[in-house]
Amino acid sequence: MGNRRLVLLPAALACLMACSSAEKKPATGITKEPFGKAKTGELVERYTLRNGNGMEVAILTYGGIVQAIRLPNGPGKMLDVALGFDTLDGYLGEHPYFGALIGRYGNRIGNAKFTLNGKEYKLAANNNGHSLHGGLKGFDKVVWAPKELAGDEPALELAYTSRDGEEGYPGELRVTVRYTLTNNNELRLDYGANSSQDTVVNLTNHSYFNLAGAGEGDILGHTIQILADRFTPVDAGLIPTGELRAVAGTPFDFLEPKAIGSRILQDDPQMVNGKGYDHNYVLNSGGGQLALAARVTGPQGLRTMEVLTTEPGIQFYSGNFLDGSNKGKGGRAYGHRYGFCLETQHFPDSPNKPDFPPVVLKAGQQYQSTTVYRFLQ
Q1: Contact between 246 and 229 (Cβ < 8 Å)
Q2: According to a count of CB atoms within 10 Å of the terminal CB, is the N or C end of the chain lower?
């Protein structure tokens, strides 16, 4: 046969280089896998969304939980910035709503009751005599029906129908939440709902973030900016007093970026009530249109997360009640202030505060809300 050489024509060489380049790009789209069974025996699945930049978001059908947010972190490396568990068992046990979808009403309703159309509705008192995050079995503890959505960006829709009277709330509420991983490294959540009767609704996501990586120490060195001139002070039970107080001159002023830990130990009555930051901020945007609400930068300024929302408020929580009892991913304990939350929302206890933005969803009307978590490097 003799010595033979393979000679590539220019067109063939170009094709080979293009194919090789395409092979190196991260796979995009959605994959699903079994993730155990809920206490009811229902099967739970994990859907993983991937974009072309290598970012991944894992979502569970149990509780609509954002189980992981993995960002490229150097050649062949990924960094998970969302606190949570490796298996379903962690989510079935006691935990502080890691990554969960919250409803019907995110945050607190004072004295676990409200009056609507002249009728009093009593709710589960699951938090020091108040109702917190939807009650004993809120939306974070049910299995949602999944639907993969076609499009240029991977998207998953979860659906759940909450029966009339569930956890004390009136009306059959049909809820959908769409999770989209955009090509701009954004996790976009679009909430929708309608009810058979007048009811109250306040949906949010309760992800805990650490931009140094889940389990990688506390978040006190993170820098945060919150675009809000006012916040809603709370009483000892963390129920808003009804006042809209200026942040100026207080440790709650984050109009300019400041380290989370820079004033967290100040002897301020509100800081004492919340044992740190656990307060609703009145966003300057006013809600209604998608607008920047907050920006957080991790240690050494290596990574930034922006939060945009159509909601009028955002709850900033500095992980004050994390105490190491939850063993998270890789068996790491989540200690005091190892994660922060930025829960977009209407204000806590709005059903009992007529001066707060209304949260009543009329029968036949459509509830809509959007929040975006954008990651920059």
Answers
A1: yes
A2: N
- Report the C-alpha gap between 230 and 250 in whole angstroms: 10
d(CA 30, CA 47): 7
Please tell me the total number of residues recorded for the chain in this structure.
377
Tell me the C-alpha distance between 135 and 166, whole Å: 9
The pLDDT tens digits for 6-30 are: 444 444 444 444 444 444 556 789 9
Long-range contacts of 325-328 (CB under 8 A, 24+ apart): 326/90, 326/95, 326/96, 326/98, 327/90, 328/83, 328/84, 328/85, 328/86, 328/90, 328/98, 328/214, 328/215
What is the Cα–Cα distance from 340 to 366, expressed in whole angstroms? 31
Rounded to the nearest 5 degrees, what angle is found at the Cα of 202, between the Cα atoms of 276 and 87? 70
Catalytic residue among 133, 206, 222, 279: 206
Active site residue 346: no
Q: What backbone phi and psi angles, to 5 degrees, belong to 105?
A: -125, 110
* DSSP for 119-130, written as a single string: EEEE----BTTB
The domain segmentation of the chain, as residue ranges, is: 30-376
**How large is the C-alpha radius of gyration of the chain?**
22
Residues 146-158: tens digit of each pLDDT: 999 989 999 999 9
| Separate counts of helices (H) and strands (E) for the chain | 3, 27
Active-site residue identified among 56, 130, 343, 346: 343
At the topology level, CATH places domain 30-376 in Beta-galactosidase; Chain A, domain 5 (2.70.98)
167 catalytic? Reply is: no
